[in-house]
Amino acid sequence: MRISPSILAADLADLSTCLKHLEGTGCDMVHFDIMDGHFVPNLTFGPPLVKAARRHTKLPFDVHLMVTNPADYVEPLTGLDIKLLSFQIEATRFAPRLISLIREHDMRPSVVLNPQTPLTAVEHVLPLVANVLIMSVDPGFAGQPFIEQMYAKIEQLNAYREENELVFTIQVDGGVNQNNIDELSAIGVDIVVAGKAFFTCPQPEEFVNRVQSLA
Ligand code: DX5
Ligand code: ZN
């Protein structure tokens, strides 16, 4: 399994130090939570900060858009070595078109589902995306507890992927910690995002090693 620490839980006023520290932990990528204060009740940062961060690290970026108009963010995020560009299915009426736009800008599209959104909402785009991100908390804030009912949803998604021989990766975001990573790996998760549990961990490199040792 791979790990993408979410800088939402880090000291955003000291981002360059944080990025250097992340490189030292051996983590696989860095998760950026772009929130517009409209799609979610919190406001974080936009593409300019992601662009500024690019100058301070070679780690791949993983950008999670929690915004009302995700299509507006694709062009400003181009050319920043973004491995996954995630948009919320609830924020668009034209998901296949948005996925094409992301690919045209040389990024890998990823679709996100809020806890209350059923898998059927994304069934038509599963052959088109590189990654499916299952939210295991309501988006907007770090430090919330994992919603246990999401295990069944992830299992269902993993079974669907196998039955249909699809190749997207499964990512989980929200309330991930060292007590639930074994279970997440066992049910088919490929990438975990970790905010609070990662940045409050006394030995984050051990957290990284544990995740990376899981299948
Ligand atoms: C929540 C964000 C998450 C958040 C995760 O809206 O999408 O990426 O930072 O933080 P933790 O791991 O603390 O739940
Ligand atoms: Zn996120």
What's the N-to-C terminus distance? 5 Å
- The number of E-state strands comes to 8
| Percentage of residues in strands | 15-25%
State the helix count.
7
Order of helices and strands: EHEHEEHEEHEHEHH
| Largest beta-sheet details | 8 strands, parallel
> What is the CA-atom radius of gyration, in angstroms?
16 Å
Q: How many separate domains?
A: 1
- The CATH architecture comes to Alpha-Beta Barrel
- What shape does the CA trace take? globular
The CATH topology comes to TIM Barrel
Residue share in helices?
25-40%
Describe the structure.
This protein has helices at 15-25, 47-54, 95-104, 150-163, 181-186, 196-199, 204-213, and strands at 2-5, 30-35, 61-66, 82-88, 109-113, 131-135, 169-173, 191-194. It has an 8-stranded parallel beta sheet. The mean pLDDT is 98. The chain has 7 helices and 8 strands, in the order βαβαββαββαβαβαα. It is an alpha/beta fold. The protein has a single domain, classed as TIM Barrel (Alpha-Beta Barrel), CATH 3.20.20. Bound molecules: D-xylitol-5-phosphate (DX5) and zinc ion. D-xylitol-5-phosphate (DX5) binds at residues 6, 8-9, 31, 33, 64, 137, 139-144, 173-176, 193-197.
Short description:
With 215 residues, this protein is of the alpha/beta class.
Outline the secondary-structure elements:
Blueprint: E1 2-5, H1 15-25, E2 30-35, H2 47-54, E3 61-66, E4 82-88, H3 95-104, E5 109-113, E6 131-135, H4 150-163, E7 169-173, H5 181-186, E8 191-194, H6 196-199, H7 204-213
Parallel strand pairs: 1-8, 2-3, 3-4, 4-5, 5-6, 6-7, 7-8
The protein binds D-xylitol-5-phosphate and zinc ion.
